[in-house]
Design a protein that fits this description.
Layout (H helix, E strand, L loop, with lengths): L9 E7 L7 H12 L3 E7 L5 H6 L6 E6 L13 E2 L1 H6 L4 E5 L2 E5 L2 H12 L10 E4 L3 H13 L4 E4 L3 H11 L5 E3 L12 E4 L15 H4 L7 E4 L8 H8 L3 E3 L2 H16 L5 H9 L6
Parallel strand pairs: 1-2, 1-3, 4-6, 7-8, 7-10, 8-9, 10-11, 11-12
Antiparallel strand pairs: 3-5, 5-6
Helix pairs in contact: 1-9, 1-10, 4-5, 4-9, 9-10
The structure holds NADP nicotinamide-adenine-dinucleotide phosphate.
NADP nicotinamide-adenine-dinucleotide phosphate binds next to α5 and α9.
Length: 286
Amino acid sequence: MTVPHLPTSLRAFLFADPAAHSLSPRMHGAAFANAGITGTYEARRVSAPELPAAVAGLRAPDVLGANLSLPHKEAALPLLDTLSDAARAIGAVNTIVNRGGQLHGDNTDAPGLLAALHDAGLPAFLPGGPVVILGAGGAARAAAFVALSDLGGAAWIVNRTLGRAQALADEFRALGEVRAAPADLAPWESAPLVINASSAGLNDPGQTPLDEAFLARLPAGALVYDMVYKPAETRLMCEARARGLTAENGLSMLAHQARLAFTAWTGADVPAQVFLDALAAPQERG
Ligand code: NAP
């Protein structure tokens, strides 16, 4: 009788450029330990021309899959065998799952964001209220998907470059009511939720995507969710809290998207707190 070869150690990757400062290896290392699975997660710097070969390598039997980050989330789509509905609608893949040599593309940013919004406490007056999304890049696409498909509200896309916001709105119109607008025309007075999906404020505590005057127009109880998590308290969050609003950073989304990817690879249901604790642990040096 021949015994099939079973890999004793499993591998997962992040493909990104740059990749060195990713927090994902910490989270997935902790998840492997928690789940009692012998596995490794390696953040690999992969340039755009290197992506097809890197993705092809994921078909190996000991590979669980990979996460994708900038600049690969859209470029990977044609390299995969199947796509989830969310990945297809959003037009971006952040998680590839190796299903016995067939590569399945998924997007855990969107359900990760949804879980993070629930953790933050979605305002009770959310249903039907407009969700204002700042930014029009990949993260804004996931936010628009959540606003339209999961929260059932109208989505307003506010972006520095209005033409990009317009293009995103045109693309997502089939999912629900979505509009692009300059900030001064967005429905602040009735918005229960503002999501910063722009990179304004990233690594710059002095920068904000939104003039404080617009925050002042939000209703009491509104939630401001900033996908940025470096710094942990952004200027947008500080200004929102100073006005009595609830504000959260993007660490919870980062943890939830990782949790969902880990489950897709292994079937293990590791608690979100394991991922959050790994993010909070002091970073190793060297
Ligand atoms: P992206 O595709 O490069 O898009 C960046 C967006 O930010 C664009 O709409 C851009 O506007 C806007 N922007 C950049 N600098 C700005 C400024 N100074 N003022 C106003 N708008 C500005 O990036 P992405 O992948 O969507 O990521 C956006 C942010 O979300 C990043 O900070 C990323 O770290 C974060 N993110 C977090 C998570 C998480 O798990 N927490 C997941 C995904 C992304 P223009 O169109 O005018 O250039």
